[in-house]
Structures are given as structure tokens and as C-alpha cells.
Amino acid sequence: MSNRQQIPHGRKRTNSRERIIDAAIDLCCMEGVRHLSLDAVAERAGLSKGGLLYNFSSKSALLQAMVTRHVETLGAAVAQSSIKTACDGQPNARIRAYVMAVRDLLAGKGSAPAGFLAAIAEEPQLLDPVRLHNEQLVRDITDESESPDLAVFAFLTVEGIRSMRLFDLSPFDDPTLLGYLDKMIDLLGRAETPPIIAATPGHPPPQGSVG
């Protein structure tokens, strides 16, 4: 199922900087990465080339802003989900908030990844801050989870889903993926870690399990 035709913006922005980023992402969604030029972005944003350059002095600066938008969109969704998980009395609140955020973005078509893909395709070094972000995220998830192994398992599962959608490789449609994410959220809300996850290298299997 292709995700590249989805336009993820729910409302028209008045801030010219945000409109430019929206326009760049829209172009990637509709016409592909190769059509991303400053002239095309300016035209779609309804600005002059000079107006675009006032906000972004180069294409590299625009690409960096597209990566930042991608990361901040998920961060804002996680913060919103954390409000729910912090007070519901269930375990593994941090990772549940993360999975909920990804699920909500997927359900709302709000995380179209074409802009992110365009940016890293042209400038792979833009992935460096994303790697650092993920490293810190995993530390936070494991430190704050009652079931650290399950939390890491959930993180890897969700990132696998996001990566498949990023490259349009998922064999599942979105409703199916939403169903699996719901099951993961339910599993994380339980106190115990399933034996198949607990019996990972470096962690002895629970008593009574086979292995």
C-alpha cells in the first residue's frame, strides 16, 4: 500500500516557514523526491524565490528543517500520549506512550514520511541527530519500564513498522498495522513479560519455561 500520495496537513498554515516545509513535503508526496527544488517549493508555497531564501538560505537548510519536522511531530504525539499513560495506573508508561503516538499518527495519516526520506536521501548525515535521539529514547524507555526487555521488543517492533512504511515496503495495509499496534499496547499494559521475550541472550528463561 503506497503512502506517498498522502498529504499529511490538516489545516492551512499562516507562518511562511511552516508553509515552505509543508510545500516541500507535499511535493515529495505527490511527485517524488527528484522534483524537490527550491523553485518548485516556492511556487507551491505561494512565495517568491526570495521569500523562500529569506526563511531557508539553502536547500540543505530546508532538508534539515524537514528532518526536524519529522522528529518533532512524533515527539509532540508522544508527549500527548504520555498525559494518558502517566495516570492510567498501568505499567510501562513511557513505551506505551511511544507506541500510542505512532498508532495515532498512522491512524490520522499524520506522519507521511516522504519529506524525511527526501532529506536523508540527499544528505545522509542528517540522520546523525536522529540516531542520537533514538539512543536516548531507548535509555529512557528501559530505565522507566517495569518490563525493560518487553519495552525494547516493542520499540524494535514499532521501528520496524515505521521503516517499512518509510520505504513503502509493508506487506500489511494500515488497518492491519493498527490492529497489531493495539495488541502491543495491550501487552505492554500488563505486568508480566511473556516468556519468549524474557528468554533473550543474557537473560535466563523464567522458571518452568523450555530453553
From TrEMBL:
Occurrences of domain HTH tetR-type (ranges): 14-74
Gene Ontology MF, one: transcription cis-regulatory region binding
Domain of life: Bacteria
Keyword DNA-binding: yes
InterPro entries found in the cross-reference section: Homeodomain-like_sf, HTH-type_TetR-like_transc_reg, HTH_TetR, TetR_CgmR_C
DNA-binding region: 37-56
Keywords in alphabetical order: DNA-binding
Designated name of the protein: TetR family transcriptional regulator
Species of provenance: Breoghania corrubedonensis
